[in-house]
Amino acid sequence: MSSCRHNGGVTRPRGHPGSSNHGQTQPCASPRLQVLVSRQEHPAATETARVATRTAREASEERAGERRKNQNIGYKLGHRRALFEKRKRLSDYALIFGMFGIVVMVTETELSWGVYTKESSYSFALKCLISLSTLVLLGLIVMYHAREIQLFMVDNGADDWRIAMTSERVFLIALELLVCAIHPIPGQYLFTWTARLAFTYAASVAHADVDIVLSIPMFLRLYLLGRVMLLHSKLFTDASSRSIGALNKINFNTRFVMKTLMTICPGTVLLVFSISSWIVAAWTVRVCERYHDKQEVTSNFLGAMWLISITFLSIGYGDMVPHTYCGKGGVCLLTGIMGAGCTALVVAVVARKLELTKAEKHVHNFMMDTQLTKRVKNAAANVLRELWLIYKHTKPGKHREKTPLKLGKIPLKSHKNPYKPEMTPIHTKRGENTGKNPLKPHKTQEKPYKNPVKIPQNPINPKITPIPDMADLQTHQTREKPHKT
Question: Where is the composition biased (Low complexity) (predicted)?
Fold first, then answer.
């Protein structure tokens, strides 16, 4: 007998006679396992189970992908907002360090001209401070543009930062770094400056510092003020305004913000711009002219402000003129151009301020309508008065006045009444001929006489009550009086 009794009628095949385990007792298999092995599955059911398993797996993968996608969108939005805040903070710091460098440069220039020389340690310390602030400014500008590139990658879904580095962006970054890198170098460096005086045309030679050439371009750092205004503007930070601007294909830049400010408060913008340009140009003229102005006319700050003001307003009295090409072409020419532009803007702003608003126009039109209505009423009253006087003094009767009433300068007898038709006297009956009047009586006109005079209607208020015709009233009275008698 076999050692496996309860095997369900399935015998285990014998091994190869040459096998190593020949003659050894084989372990018994489980009855349950034997039943599963001996059972034959249907192929259609197996395929259905596989499809169901695959469908469930795909559905779970899709749900997991959507969950990851939502998490990625939320992460991108949060990351984008953080980049916006960092960029705005970097722009603020860059403006602070840029203005700090300008203030220190002006202080060092004024002190080195009147208090100490360029060789002193104070001048060296101030120039080192300017250089340090310039290095910090350059680092902030590089970090600012790095945040801009990251924002570009987040907005456009780019994986490589080199996609955002277009030739235009590279040129603008290099130009910005070059402008902000200009500053006075520590130490004293001189050059020979030759100029021709304005009135005497004599040559003037002076040994000037190189700091003049390196100090004046530092005012170009003021462009950072426009960037800060853009990043702090509500139009730029508000999501709804940016969405509407994107739908209308509007680029939110410094030009758009300046246009908005000119629309909201044009007077304030022009005033701040004019005063700032006036002060900067006056100080620049003073620095350029102090090496060749021996009489201290334009090298004085008040004299330089007077020169800039008459140049800005295009007056040009001729009492003060610059001697150097720096003062002539670099400052006064640009001042004249800016003055012409600001004058045109001031005229436009004043003209806009003098215009009536919509509510004021409605009030003005209402007042004009009221005055015109009063004039029409007065004219109608005058016409009625004249008609009544004409009717009163031309009415036939026993008590008729022999003295004719003069209407103006025209006597009443010679005045032909256009409003009174020919009619039969009241005391004469129809169809009879009295002895006093040998003429045949005239029949009253069946058709009333139309007034040829037309009163002009009010073009603004056409609803005016018409004036009754006096000829109709007289005809009606003529027809009614014989019946009463």
Answer: 45-54
Q: How many CA atoms lie within 13 A of 384 on its CB side?
A: 10
The answer to whether the CB of 188 falls within 8 A of the CB of 119 is yes
Which value, in Å, is the radius of gyration of the alpha carbons in the chain?
52
Write phi, then psi, for 192 (nearest 5 degrees). -90, 125
Name the pairing type of β-strands 203-209 and 190-196: antiparallel
Using DSSP, how many helices (H) and how many strands (E) does the chain show? 15, 4
CA-CA distance, 138 to 178, in Å (whole number)?
9
Q: SS3 letters for 367-427?
A: HHHHHHHHHHHHHHHHHHHHHHHHHHHCCCCCCCCCCCCEECCEECCCCCCCCCCCCCCCC
- Let me know: does 183 contact 126? Beta carbons within 8 Å: no
- What are the φ and ψ backbone dihedral angles of 205, each rounded to 5 degrees? -115, 135
CB 12 within 8 A of CB 21: no
How far apart CA 155 and CA 209 sit, in angstroms, is 49
Q: Are 340 and 315 in contact (CB under 8 A)?
A: no
CA separation for the pair 394, 400 (Å, rounded): 8
With DSSP H G I counted as helix, E B as strand and the rest as coil, what are the percentages for the chain, rounded to 5?
60, 5, 35
**Which of 10-19, 43-52, 277-286, 418-427 has the highest average model confidence (pLDDT)?**
277-286
pLDDT at 71: 57
Give CA torsion, residues 296, 300, 302, 306, to 10 deg: 60
Sort residue 164 into left (φ over 0), alpha (ψ -120 to 50) or beta: alpha
pLDDT at 20 over 50: no
CB 413 within 8 A of CB 385: no
Residue 259: HSE in the Cβ half-sphere, 13 Å Cα cutoff = 8
**pLDDT the model gives residue 3:** 44
How far apart CA 138 and CA 97 sit, in angstroms, is 10
Q: Is 453 left (phi over 0), alpha (psi -120 to 50) or beta?
A: beta
Cα separation, 350 vs 100, whole angstroms? 36
Tokens, residue 187: 């130490």
Q: How far is CA 410 from CA 11, 26, 471, in A?
A: 154, 157, 21
Kind and range of the H or E element at 260? helix 254-264
**How far is residue 279's CA from residue 282's CA, in Å, rounded to a whole number?**
5
User: Is the CB of residue 426 less than 8 Å from the CB of residue 396?
Assistant: yes
| pLDDT at residue number 239 | 75
| Rounded-to-integer distance, Cα 476 and Cα 445, Å | 11
pLDDT of residue 201: 82
> Is 267 strand, coil or helix?
helix
> What confidence score (pLDDT) does residue 398 get?
47
Triad 187, 191, 196: Cα angle to 5°: 140
